[in-house]
Amino acid sequence: MTLIKALPSNISFDMKAYEKQYLDDILENGMPRYSQAAKEQAKSSINAMLEMIHQKDYFTIAKDVNSWMERRT
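User: That's the sequence. What structure does it adopt?
Assistant: Structure tokens below.
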């Protein structure tokens, strides 16, 4: 996902590729790594984040990311 030089309304996420590469992962014992509920929660969180991004402008997103990074340290 490219965030630099892209209008917030143009930012997208390839959910199918994410599901295939990560959410549908199978453990060595043949069991799925994630439950269906965990998969749905991950997809819901990503969709909510994209909706918030689409409603903001570039500088507001940068400020929000900076604030988030400061809270994590």
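The longest helix spans residues 36-54.
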